[in-house]
Amino acid sequence: MIRFSRSVNAMQSSAVRELMKVASDPDVISFAGGMPNPDLFPVGELDEIYASLSLKDKQNGFQYGPTPGYPPLLESLREYLRAKGLPVDRNDLIVTAGSLQAINLTAKVFVDAGDSIVTETPCFVGAISVFKFYQAELRGVPINEGGVLIPELDKALNGVHPTPKILYLTPYFHNPAGIVYGPERQRQVLNLLHHRGDVVLIEDDAYGELYFEERDRPVPMKAMADDSVPVCYTGSFSKIFGPGMRLGWLLAPRDVVRKCELAKQGVDACSSTFTQVLADAFLRRGMLSGYLKRLREAYARRAKRMLDSLEAHMPKSVKWTVPRGGFYIWVQLPSVMDASELLEKSVRRGTVFVVGKAFDPQGKKNDCLRLSFSHTPEDKIDEGIRKIAEAVREKRQ
Amino acid sequence: MIRFSRSVNAMQSSAVRELMKVASDPDVISFAGGMPNPDLFPVGELDEIYASLSLKDKQNGFQYGPTPGYPPLLESLREYLRAKGLPVDRNDLIVTAGSLQAINLTAKVFVDAGDSIVTETPCFVGAISVFKFYQAELRGVPINEGGVLIPELDKALNGVHPTPKILYLTPYFHNPAGIVYGPERQRQVLNLLHHRGDVVLIEDDAYGELYFEERDRPVPMKAMADDSVPVCYTGSFSKIFGPGMRLGWLLAPRDVVRKCELAKQGVDACSSTFTQVLADAFLRRGMLSGYLKRLREAYARRAKRMLDSLEAHMPKSVKWTVPRGGFYIWVQLPSVMDASELLEKSVRRGTVFVVGKAFDPQGKKNDCLRLSFSHTPEDKIDEGIRKIAEAVREKRQ
Description:
Two copies of one chain form a homodimer. Chain A has helices at residues 15-23, 43-52, 55-62, 71-83, 98-110, 125-133, 150-158, 183-193, 221-224, 254-265, 273-284, 288-313, 339-349, 381-396; strands at 29-30, 92-96, 116-121, 137-144, 147-148, 166-169, 200-204, 231-236, 248-252, 319-320, 328-332, 351-352, 354-355, 368-372. Chain A has 397 residues and is α/β, with parallel strands linked by helices.
C-alpha cells in the first residue's frame, strides 16, 4: 500500500484553481482569475527583444544559470530596485520562480511544522497554500481600508506563545482586498517589529507598480525600515511583464538569501535562464516604464467601469472597497449572506467570482467575495456585475 | 534574533555548485559541470520556432498556465512518451521545472522527516539535495557496471525497519557513474518491488535519449512493470532541448500526480508557460529526432576522446567506466588516494572535476571522481586528462 507523507493531508486544492474550470468556459463572464489581461502583454516589445538577441544570449538562455539568478538580470534588477529606494546594497537578491517561490523559500528556511505565521484576513490564497505546505499554523488579523488593524496585530505578535516566526503582509493593492497601506500604518507595523528580530516580515509587493494615480505610488516598508527589522521583500515580473515567465525575486538580509539559495538548489537548481534573458532585455532596454503607463491606464479604466457597475446595480446593503491600484475589488455582503450560495446562483446566470473563504486563513469567513477586473473582456464587466446583483436580490427574497 | 527552521541545518551547499566558481575561469579546463555543450543547443530551430509563433501562442506564453502543464505540451509529451512504450494512458503526467522538481514533488508527497530513502552509491547530487531538503535518511547501495547490486538492494529494502518509502535509481547513463542497466538487472529490481506497493520507485531517466549506439537504447522499467509497482518516471528537457527552459516531467500513478499537483500549487503555481510553448513547438514540428542524432554523435565522439586520453595518460592503477551514453565517466582511484587531495593538485595545474564524496549519500567515500565530457572544449580534453594524470603520479610518489 502506498504510504503518503503526513504533510499531504494539509494540502488542499485551491478554490481559485477549481473554479478556473468553470471560468474558462467562453460563455461565462469570469471575475475569478488574478490573471493579467492577455491583450495587454508586451508582445511587440518581445518581438523587438528576440530580434536583438545575439547567438551568445540565446546559448545563455538554453543553459543552466547560477542558482541566485542570471547575472545580467540580477544587475538590471538591482538597478530597478535601487531606483525604488530599496536598500539593495545592504541586502542580497535572488531570482525566483514568481514571488510565490520567494514566499515558499522564505517559509522553508524559517518554518518548522507547527510554527505559527501571522497573516492578514483576507490573505493571498497562494501564500496560504505555501504556509500549509510547511504545516504552519496560521493566525489571521483583520484589516480595514488602510491596512492591518494595529491593536489586533500587536495581540497576535505579542499576546501568544510561542511567538510567530513570520508576519506576512500584502500592503500594496492587496490581493484580494484591493486596499493600500498608508505611510502612518506602515510606520505602526514597523514599530511593532522594531529592535526585536524574532519576527520576520515578508512584504509581498506583487502589485505595487500598478497604482492608478502617481500620488498612490507606494514606498515599500523595506525602504523605510532600519536593519533591526528583518524584512524579506518579494516582488514579481508576473504583473509587470508576464506570469508565464515565472520570474520573481526576494530582497532580504544576506544570511536569509544565502539559505534560500541552498534551498533553491534542491527545488529547481535555477529559474528559467531563457525567460531571465528576456526579462533582463526588457529592463535594460528601458521598456518597462512605457509599458507600465499603458497598464496603469488600462487597469484604472477597468476598475472604474466595475465600480460604476457596482454603484448602478448592487443593493445598498452590499459594500465594496474602492481600489487605487491592482486587480481587485473586495465585496462585503450582508452578514446573513453566504458567498458560496451566491456563487451557485451566479454560475447559473453565467458569472463567476471567488468566494471569501478561499482567502480566510481559517477557510471559514464567507460573507464576502473577490471580483477581479483585470482579465474580463471590458464590455462584459457591466453585464457580469448586473447578473451578480440579480443573484444577490434573488437570495434576499 | 532570527530563528531559522531546523531543516536548514540539513541543507548544504552542493560541492558541484561551489566548484563552478573555479570551473568558470576561462583558463581552467573543467570536467566538473553536468552542462550540455552550448555549441550544440538548437538555436537555429529556436529561431524557426519563434518566427512561426502566432500572436495567440505568444500571449499564451506570457500568461499563467494550468498547474499540471500547458495543455498542448502535455499532449505532445504524451505522444513522445507513448512512442517510447510508456503506459501513458494508465498514468498521469505533470510538467515540472526540470526533473529535479519532479523528484522534489515526489519526495514531498511521500517523505516525512526521518523517513528513509534507498539510493545508489554514487547518486545524482541533485537528488541527494532534494532528499536532505525533506530531512530523509539516505541508505546507499553499491552499483557495478550493470547497475545496482541486487543482494545489497534486497537487504536495504527488506532487512531494515521501518521499510524505506522510496527507491531512487538513475538506471540509464548514470550521473555520475556513466553506467547503464541491462534488461536482466531491470527485471531483478522490479521483482524486488513486485506486488508490495509500499516502496515507490523513482526512475530518473534524464539521460536515456543520449545513447551512443542504437543497441543501447534503454527500455524504461516504467514500460516493463505491471501496475503493482508504483513507478514514478521522471524525465527532462534539459538534455534534449536545454536546461535553461527548466522543463521536465513526471509520469506516475494518478493519485501520486494529483498530490504532486497540489504540492506544485504551493511551489510555483505552474512551470514557465513561455518555455512550454517553445518545447511544444520543438516536439510538434518533429525537430527532436534530428537534434538527438546530432547530440548522440557529438557526445559519443567526446566520450571516445576522453577514453583515449585516459588510456594514454593514466597509470594502470586507475580504473574507469566506459560509458555507452550520457555525459560522464566515473574514475576509480587506488584506494589509498583521496579525490579531494587530487583535486587540489589538479586545480594548481588548471583542471577541475567533481570529487566522489559529493555523490555519496553519506558524503564520505572519496576514492573516486566524476569526469564530464559534455561541456569542455573538445580540443582541451586530452590536455586536461594529461594534467589530472600528472597529478595522480605526483600524489603517488
